[in-house]
Design brief:
Low-confidence stretches: none
Radius of gyration: 12 Å
Number of helices: 5
Distance between the termini: 24 Å
Oligomer: single chain
Structural class: mainly alpha
Mean pLDDT: 86
Shape: globular
Strand content: under 5%
Largest sheet: none
Helix content: 55-70%
Order of helices and strands: HHHHH
Number of strands: 0
Length: 66
């Protein structure tokens, strides 16, 4: 379940957007790094924000970007 939440999260969508080069998303880079996440600790999207200590300002920047 953690992988599904992570892949569909605001953070991953944001990373895909900002790693886009030449109109191609950098999904391969993002996906390769998923193995470094402890997916067992992700039960909801808020867990991702807590894991990376994202604050409201940073979340707003991500939302505004995508």
């Amino acid at each position: 379940n953690g992988i599904k939440i992570l892949i569909n999260s605001l953070l991953i969508n944001y990373l895909n957007k900002v790693t886009m080069t030449d109109g191609i998303h950098g999904r391969d880079v993002v996906m390769r790094n998923i193995k470094y996440f402890d997916l067992s600790k992700i039960n909801c999207e808020k867990d991702i924000y807590d894991l990376f200590e994202l604050n409201e300002r940073e979340l707003k920047i991500m939302k505004d970007t995508i």
